Amino acid sequence: MASVMENFTNRSIDIASLPQFEEVSFQPISKSYLIKASLQNLVFLCIAVIGWVVLFYFEINQNQLILLFIGIVLFFGFKFWNISQLQKNYGFALREKDILYRRGYLVNKTTVVPFNRIQHASISRDVLDKMLKISSLKIFTAGGSGSDIIIPGLAPDLALRLKEALAAKLTANEF
Amino acid sequence: MNSNLFGVPQRQSEIGILLIFLTRIFNLLKGFWAIIVYFLFTGPSVETLVYIVMGSGVISVLVLLYSYVYYRRFLFHIDYENQEFVLQEGVFNTEDIAIPFDKIQQVYIKRNILQRLLNVNSFVIETAGSKKEEISIKAISHEKANQLLAILIKVKDKYSEEITNIETTGGTANKQFWTHELSFLTLLKIGISTNYLRGLVLIFAFFTTIYNEVSTVSEEHSETIKNYLNELPGPMESVSVFLFIAVIVLLLSVLITIAEVFIKYFNLKLTQTKESLELEMGLNTNTKISLQPRRVQLLQVITNPVQKWLNLYEVRISLANSEDELQKSKIKSPGLDQDTVAKMNSFLYTDQFSGFEETFSPDKILLVRRLIIALIPALLSYFVVFFVDALSFTSWLLLVGLYTVIAIIWQILMFRSLSLIISEDFIYKKSGVWNKTEKHFEIYKSQSISILQPLWYEKRNLINIVFHTAGGDISFRAVNKNILPYINYMFYKIESNSRSWM
Predict the structure, then answer these.
(1) Interface of B with A (CB under 8 A)
(2) Are residues B59 and B158 in the same domain?
(3) Strands in B304-348 per DSSP E
(4) Same-domain pairing of B410 and B423
(5) Looking at the structure, do residues B156 and B251 belong to the same domain, yes or no?
(6) Do residue B194 and residue B299 come from a single domain?
(7) Which residues of B356-381 are buried (b: 16+ CB within 10 A; e: fewer)?
(8) Number of domains chain A contains
(9) Contact (CB, 8 A) for A167 and A174
(10) Domain containing B186: what range?
């Protein structure tokens, strides 16, 4: 490992003076994503309601039906509330050498992916994305699914620019 | 290379249309054979027979049409410029597949009976990646298949030669530095000391089933059982019978484990050469793996008190062979002594400079939460008392008391064993009550890091951290936020390091 030794310098590092990822200000994602998430939730709500109506039609035990109804209301009420909270917490930030992605309300999660560890990036749009004019940016690493990030609700041109920026950094980092 | 053979997109043999047609028809018949047989046996009227014949006629024409279009759209060629094999296919949706020469793992020709009759071949290209990328040309003439085979093997070999050349530069003399072999005795030791827990579980399962059997039987035939028990020579005798069976079960489980260990790790041999660590083992399937330091993503050292006393450590290594198949290679090598583990470490990680070293422990709240989670089943089991008459309140109290004591002790030991050490170049995570595990990896080999903060940790200033490596995730929960400067240091390490991680 002679090559390693050549590059080796052992200057001391003041850890406290290193750039702090927690100080970065995040950019929010598009409001349209809130609509998308709500629509998706609405579809599930419809399915649940249809299921409930079918059960109601077949006159299954009244008490259970009421319990089920309360369950549905509580669950979807929570979902809608959670979606609105989640929307506030979605955020991403680019630094010189890495990309940060933050999401989650009950459990707030920030993933930091250094550019020199990105395998590839892609943009995906489903039907709702196309209707609402947003897209998702997917960033893949070799660290498995936990390490990959998917940033939803980006304006298509922004997603494209981000992807191109990442691609440029990718090639610049190849050794 | 004969210039541009297969340089332009081309189709399969014309006879391929027939092959595709026959294959499709055969598949259809295979799919509907039940219906066909049913119809034949019910004795259809002439009218329905006519319909059936007409229907199958229409279907045949459609399939023929499909086969023709399939044949027309199926185009393959070699792109010499981009070093790829290119295939376009698909009737309804078109697929464009390009396989770079370096991704080709295997090329071969095969033929089934139908292909033999039609005098065509299947030409198959296998790649290392997902199954989807596998290419199979169903109807290609013998002559062409051989030509294509020759060309692809040539380019493939050329490429892999290049790779091996790179990898062996400078290290032509594979000088051996040290070797470590597992002796017969060590294998025996491993066999005895690894899995007696399973033996205990087996015994437990054995006794609970016996007990269940006895209790259900005794309810039904309490009289006969009593009589039978009276006939037995004495209570001591029956106990000794039980003990005897228990010992046999334990011995059997130990024997099975020993056999397992022997089959897997027989002749395990670890050899260090200049370039890599060679690991060889196995009785019936001999595996041979070469460990190169830069491919190592994560290293685990596992031992338990008994094994520690016997000086046996198990090392597990996650390797990254190629970017496609990351999780595939996890190498287990048991029965190494402390000295060998240290030697492995110093070979795999050349630059272990002792800079700073900071140890982190999880917050007490983690213990409290784990205890609560562990005690929930105990509380829930109280309801069982209501429904099962056989269980009296006192015996429930006894069982739950025992469970609680064990759970609390276990959780406290578990909590105590957890620690995360961040040094200048490495991350270490220690855990485990009985099987003590120490995982470590080089900081610059992490792929990304996630920092999680549940709402209920906010006040306490705690976070969970997940390090994503190519060898798997390592998480550490409920650690104080004062770890953050070190996380930032990790980013600095990853981003300022130009070494490739594999």
Answers:
(1) 293, 320, 323, 326-327, 350-351, 353, 446-455, 466, 468-470, 472-473, 484-489, 491-492, 494-495, 498-502
(2) yes
(3) 313-319, 330-336
(4) no
(5) no
(6) yes
(7) eeeebebbeebbeebbeebbeeeeee
(8) 1
(9) no
(10) 176-350
Q: Within B75-195, where are the H helices? A: 113-118, 142-168, 184-194
CATH number at residue B480: 2.30.29.30
Mean pLDDT, chain B cut into blocks of 10 residues (502 residues total): 70 85 84 76 78 87 90 87 81 75 72 80 69 70 83 72 45 60 84 69 71 64 59 61 78 81 82 78 68 84 88 86 53 86 84 77 92 88 73 80 91 93 91 90 91 92 92 90 92 85 74
Across the interface, which of B450, B487, B488 has its CB nearest the CB of A109? Answer: B450
B315-346 pLDDT per residue, tens: 988 877 554 444 456 788 888 888 888 888 88
How far is residue A28 from each of residues A86, A87, B425, measured CA to CA in Å? Answer: 11, 8, 35
Amino acid of residue A89: N
- For residue A59, being part of any structural domain is answered with yes
* Binary contact (A143, B327; C-beta < 8 A): no
Of B323, B351, B452, the CB nearest to A109: B452
- Tokens representing A140 are 């893949």
Same domain, B198 and B301: yes
Judge whether A169 lies within some domain. Answer: no
Q: pLDDT tens, A18-53? A: 888 888 899 999 999 999 999 999 999 999 999 888
pTM: 0.67
User: Does residue A24 form part of some domain?
Assistant: no
Q: Quick one: tokens of B284?
A: 């019936």
**Interchain pair A112, B491: CB under 8 A:** yes
Mean pLDDT of the region A3-25? 72
Nearest to A15 among B323, B473, B486 (CB): B486
Look at residue B358 and tell me if it is in a domain: no
**What are the b/e assignments for B64-85, b being 16+ CB within 10 Å?**
beebeebbeebebbbebeeebb
Among residues B474, B489, B485, the alpha carbon closest in space to that of B440 is found at B474
> How many angstroms separate the CA of residue A19 from the nearest CA in chain B?
7
| The CA-based dihedral angle spanning residues B419, B423, B428, B434, taken in that order and rounded to the nearest 10 degrees | -50
Cα–Cα dist A128/A135, whole Å = 9
Tokens coding A83:
């979606």
Which residue is listed with tokens 């210039």?
B3
Which residue type does B461 have?
A: N
Q: To the nearest whole angstrom, how far is the Cα of A167 from the nearest Cα of chain B?
A: 16
Residue type, A44: F
Is A110 inside any structural domain? Answer: no
Size of interface A-B (CB pairs under 8 A): 115
Q: Chain A: nearest CA to B422, how far in angstroms?
A: 12
Rounded to an integer, what distance in angstroms lies between the CA atom of residue B296 and that of residue B446?
11
Q: Do A144 and B320 touch (CB under 8 A)?
A: no
Domain count, chain B: 4
Q: Which residue range is the domain that position A79 belongs to? A: 33-86
Tokens of B315: 């090392």
Q: Report how far residue A148's alpha carbon sits from residue B447's, in angstroms, rounded to the nearest whole number.
A: 9
Nearest-CB residue to A112 (from B320, B449, B489)? B449
Distance (Å, whole) CA B213 – CA B205: 12
Judging contacts by C-beta atoms under 8 Å, the chain A residues touching residue B473 are 143-144, 146-147
Same-domain check for residues B206 and B301: yes
